Amino acid sequence: MALARILVVDDEAPVREVLTEYFATEGYAVEAAGSGAEALTAVRGGRVDLVLLDVRMPGLDGIQVLRRIRELDERVPVIMVTANEDVGLARETLKLGAFDYVAKPFDFDYLDRAVAAGLARVGDKTPAGGATEDDPWKTLARAAFGAARSMQPPARPSTGERLETAALAAARNAAAGRCAAADESLAEMQLLLDIAAELGDLPATDRALVESALEAARRSLALAG
User: Roughly what angle, to the nearest 10 degrees, separates helices 108-121 and 136-150?
Assistant: First the structure.
């Protein structure tokens, strides 16, 4: 089962191909659209959990498409894709309801985190792929990203980011049937939680939420094994 459905919207075929291939290998189901009109058709059809949307396109540009997506669905996360010279414009799209923006050439580590954070923020929405909030891996990702974002510097860019990375790795390995690797990632998450708690970087309530999600994920692995 795919982690989620991502819609890549860009009028440049090489960009669509790069993003499609990257996220497909990361365990996502990816659909590509070469125009704003195609993108809106996919959103209307309920086939989308998250949109990667180019800012500048002929015809309907990214700004117009973003506005129409927001009219169709207020919750689906939209991450704007932009050239470096348009970063200021992309930043303005946050006021229109974009979740985040990324610049070309891509920093795939940041892009990966932005996508995961956007999906985690969806919360109790039922994704197009058919999973629900009872999916232990989505629950784990939401809990981990929520806990990491509650941390303050210097814990956030160190322990917090490692916690997010481990949660993503666990979900991807579980989706691919690599149960041993997923279990290793869960063990890493537990270690990071213990360290953060000992250093006072993680509130007890946040730790409890992540540990509850960890336990559910472990049960899921045991059943899969």
Answer: 110
